[in-house]
Recover the amino acids of this structure.
């Protein structure tokens, strides 16, 4: 997301607008680098007071801009060597059904509605080809899945959240 920080960002969340200042952007970028930092450490890096950081983070959480805090795992080291992007052609009017059944699978890490030849794309992780094969065979039996196209990721060049600029 490339936004001119001097102009700020206006976000509309949960029925009200939130102005995102340069300070908010700095705080969010610091949290993207390391969400385990204390408010004091964030304040030092952002060049603001601890109270400012506390208030800004609280407002960003309340507005839903900060949705939570998580850990970044190395899935390959955990044995999940297969990453597949699966395009799915879905029967007309059955998109909500797909979202409930397919997106809830533990191997699905992202699910997108999309334009083009296919209606949805999912990103999946598996320990081995057998797991991917079983998953594909399972979803292809669903009445709303007309067809799939699977692409295997050979190498992950970049995988991270965008910093605000």
């Amino acid at each position: 997301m490339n936004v001119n920080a001097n102009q700020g960002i206006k976000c509309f969340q949960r029925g009200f607008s939130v102005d995102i200042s340069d300070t908010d952007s700095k705080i969010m970028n610091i949290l993207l680098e390391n969400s385990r930092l204390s408010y004091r450490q964030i304040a030092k890096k952002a060049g603001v007071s601890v109270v400012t950081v506390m208030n800004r983070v609280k407002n960003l959480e309340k507005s839903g801009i900060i949705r939570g805090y998580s850990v970044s795992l190395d899935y390959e080291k955990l044995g999940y060597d297969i990453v597949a992007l699966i395009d799915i052609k879905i029967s007309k009017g059955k998109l909500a059904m797909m979202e409930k059944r397919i997106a809830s699978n533990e191997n699905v890490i992202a699910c997108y509605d999309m334009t083009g030849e296919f209606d949805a794309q999912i990103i999946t992780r598996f320990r081995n080809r057998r797991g991917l094969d079983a998953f594909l065979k399972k979803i292809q039996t669903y009445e709303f899945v007309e067809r799939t196209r699977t692409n295997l990721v050979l190498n992950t060049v970049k995988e991270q959240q965008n910093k605000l600029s």
Summary: Residues 14 and 69 are 20 Å apart (CA to CA). The beta strands are 9-13, 16-20, 82-90, 108-113, 120-126, 145-152. The chain has two domains: 9-62, 82-152. The first strand starts at residue 9 and ends at 13.
